[in-house]
Amino acid sequence: QTLTVDSAAQFNCDLTIGSAPCSGNFTVWSPTTINCPTTINSTLNVTGNVVLGTNCGGNTILLKGVTTINCATYLKSTLEVDGNTQLKGTLTVTGTTQLNNHLTVADGKNTTLGNNLLVKGDETVDGTSLVKGKTTIFATKNCANDALLVNGKSVFECLVTINAGLTVSAGNVNISGDVVLGTSCSNTLVVK
Asked: What is the CA angle 51-52-56, rounded to 5?
C-alpha cells in the first residue's frame, strides 16, 4: 500500500519504517533538514558530495573510530596532529618545512639533500664523513680566526698546498719523502 500526503505532516512520536532485520526503504526526494541529534546504528553510504559544517570557526567533526580514506584528500587549511604520525609512503612537500624540535633519521637510512645545507649551530658527526667535492671553511679569507681543529691523526693522500704560514707549536715533524723548499734561488730559508 502507498500513503500519499500532499500537505505538511507532523509526527509527535517515534516513526518506525520497516522492521528488523533492516527491511523496507526510506526514500527522500527533496531537501531535508534535521534540527536535532541523529543516531545511525548501521552503515551510512553517500554517493554524492558531503558538506559537514558551515564555517571554519565553530563547527567540529569528531571521529571516534578508525578512519580509512581510499582516495586523495585535500586540506585547504592547517592540519594539527596531537599524537604520533606514521607515513608508510613518500612525503612530498612543495613549500617551506619548519621543524621546531629534533629530527631523527633511523640507523642505516640515507639522507639526500638536492641543494645547499645551512647549519647555524655546532655539527657533530659520529661516523665517517665523505666529501666528494670541494670544502670551503669561511665564506671569505679570514686568517685571524681559528677555522679547523683536528684532535686526531690526519692523512693526506695527495698534494697539500698552504698559501700562508705553517706553525708547529709542539712535537716533531717527520717527513719520509723528499723535501723541496722554495721554487727558485731567490727564495730564503730561515732557521731559528
From this structure: 110
What are the pLDDT digits (tens) for 59-98?
788 888 888 989 988 888 888 888 899 998 999 999 899 9
Local confidence band at 176 (pLDDT 50, 70, 90 cut-offs): confident
3-state helix, strand, coil in the chain (%, to 5): 0, 0, 100
What does 116-156 look like in DSSP terms, one character per residue?
-----S----SS-----S---SSSS--TTS------S----
pLDDT bucket at 179, cuts 50 / 70 / 90? confident
**Which residues, including other chains, have CB under 8 Å from residue 18's CB and lie 6 or more apart?**
24, 25, 26
pLDDT band at 127 (very low <50, low <70, confident <90, very high): confident
Residue 130 in grid coordinates = 665523505
Cell triple for residue 80? 594539527
- Evaluate whether 110 touches 130 at the Cβ level (below 8 Å): no
Place of cell 532485520: 21
| C-alpha to C-alpha distance for 189 and 192, rounded to whole angstroms | 10
Q: Residue 17 and residue 6: Cα distance in Å, rounded?
A: 19
Position 153 scores a pLDDT of 86
Reading the block at residue 119, the C-alpha cell is 647549519
CA dihedral 82, 106, 111, 150 (to 10 degrees): 120
